[in-house]
Specification:
- A six-stranded parallel beta sheet has the order 3-2-1-7-8-9, sandwiched between helices. Strands 5-4-6 form a three-stranded antiparallel beta sheet.
- The chain folds into two domains: about 200 residues, 3-Layer(aba) Sandwich (Rossmann fold); about 150 residues, no CATH class.
- Helix 1 packs across helix 14, helix 5 runs parallel beside helix 14 and helix 11 runs parallel beside helix 12.
- Helix content is about 35%, strand content about 10%.
- It starts with about 25 loop residues before the first helix and ends in a 15-residue tail after the last helix.
- Strand 2, helix 6 and strand 3 form a beta-alpha-beta unit.
- The relative contact order is 0.24.
- The chain is built from 15 helices and nine strands.
- By secondary structure, it is α/β, with parallel strands linked by helices.
- The structure holds zinc ion.
- Zinc ion binds next to helix 10.
């Protein structure tokens, strides 16, 4: 069977949602509805798996990282709306084209520090608390910032679209931490490293909007790209995979690959192996079968689905929600703005239901979820107490997560 590819889907706004139940249009009503949802008896169409108290699986998207200062795609200040010329790189371009990789890495080099200093927010912490209280079975995320792993390492989180904290070689598949790679980019591109220091000092990189970047003195082309006099994209250099450089891999045909670098260690395009790629699923790239199967298993072993901060515009996420629906699972959605095909998830709901069969709320999850956690504590719900201070310290960063840098 053909593996699903990642495509660029709906970039415009979707129709506004129908709020369910109707009183979920206020914060108090939404909290009550979500409390009913999490505490509801198992759906009769599901088997014994849903009798487990921690039967809810959570599916998250870029909307939940907005409160960490990262842009989403389709929100009010989303990448597709703010930067009209934004176009992500495709997998085949990245793999086949040295020039495309130079441009990608130049932009990525400038984008990295903002991502590196971003932290998980109240939504991630509330999910951690709901996990501690025994409501959540696992999390599936489309986000590549690794915030879930930082915020709740004890609650399983599957990164459906990979992660930016590492590079992975497309030849030998070894990984390289991004912070080491970033230092290599700075060493190989001193003029860009200087520009990065200046741009960080001026605050020009605090926004994705080309206009505000230009206003803060960053030299940009009409398409929003950086225009660095004396150091255009065509001169940007990036390193080769250190493993492949030391031991060029053998090709499937049985011949030895060649990995060439210049005198400073920068990748030469005549190489036949050793290209490092961010460990994310790029547009036009297949999700690895084990990841796809693990995501399906997460749905199949759950009793309820809670969708947070995503319009489900990517097919790989939408099909998981559809899978839950096809199994008769109650679905709750918290998202600002419409969600792809959402009327399907709530069709034929009993008009008198109070959240136990379905919830649709249009609010910021970083406000709503902490209130839900407080409400559940007051009810005495859940199987354990709030995490201790020691557990809360898990938030202290010990690796480097990053948000989408597909641009
Ligand atoms: Zn390699």
């Amino acid at each position: 069977m053909r593996k699903p590819l990642m495509r660029i889907p709906y970039t415009g706004p979707l129709p506004p949602p129908r709020i369910l139940p109707r009183n979920a249009n206020t914060a108090v009503g939404a909290v009550a509805a979500l409390s009913n949802f999490l505490n509801a008896s198992p759906a009769p169409t599901l088997d014994e798996r849903s009798t487990s108290p921690n039967s809810t699986v959570i599916l998250t998207g870029a909307g939940i990282s907005v409160a960490s200062g990262l842009a989403d795609y389709r929100g009010t200040n989303g990448t597709y709306r703010v930067n009209k010329t934004y176009r992500p790189i495709y997998y085949h371009e990245f793999v086949q084209n040295h020039e495309a990789r130079k441009r990608y890495w130049a932009r990525s080099f400038l984008g990295w520090p903002n991502l590196d200093r971003a932290e998980p927010n109240a939504t991630h912490r509330a999910i951690r608390d709901l996990g501690h209280m025994g409501f959540i079975k696992s999390v599936v995320t489309q986000n590549v910032d690794s915030f879930h792993l930082l915020a709740h390492p004890e609650l399983p989180a599957l990164e459906l679209h990979g992660y930016l904290r590492s590079l992975r070689c497309i030849s030998c598949h070894n990984e390289l931490p991004r912070d080491i790679f970033q230092k290599e980019l700075a060493r190989l591109n001193p003029a860009w490293a200087e520009l990065l220091e200046e741009a960080l000092a001026s605050g020009a990189l605090d926004s994705e909007d080309p206009e505000s970047r230009r206003a803060k003195g960053m030299k940009l082309n009409p398409d929003g790209d950086v225009d660095l006099p004396g150091a255009p994209y065509t001169t940007f250099r990036y390193p080769a995979c250190p493993t492949c450089l030391a031991t060029p891999p053998i090709t499937p045909a049985g011949t030895k690959s060649t990995v060439k670098v210049d005198k400073d260690g920068a990748f030469e395009p005549s190489s036949t192996a050793g290209i490092l790629k961010p460990a994310v699923v790029m547009f036009g790239e297949s999700i690895a079968s084990p990841v796809k199967e693990a995501a399906e298993h997460a749905i199949d072993s759950a009793g309820r689905l809670l969708v947070i901060g995503t319009s489900l515009a990517t097919y790989s996420a939408w099909r998981l929600a559809r899978r839950a629906k096809d199994q008769g699972m109650p679905i709750a959605i918290i998202n600002l703005g419409g969600v792809r095909g959402e009327e399907l998830f709530f069709e034929n709901l009993d008009a008198g239901q109070r959240g136990e069969l379905g919830v649709r709320a249009e609010m910021s999850s970083d406000k709503l979820l902490p209130s839900l956690v407080d409400h559940l504590h007051v009810l005495g719900a859940g199987t354990s107490d709030r995490p201790s201070q020691a557990a809360a310290k898990v938030l202290t960063r010990n690796n480097s997560p990053f948000k989408d840098m597909l641009s």
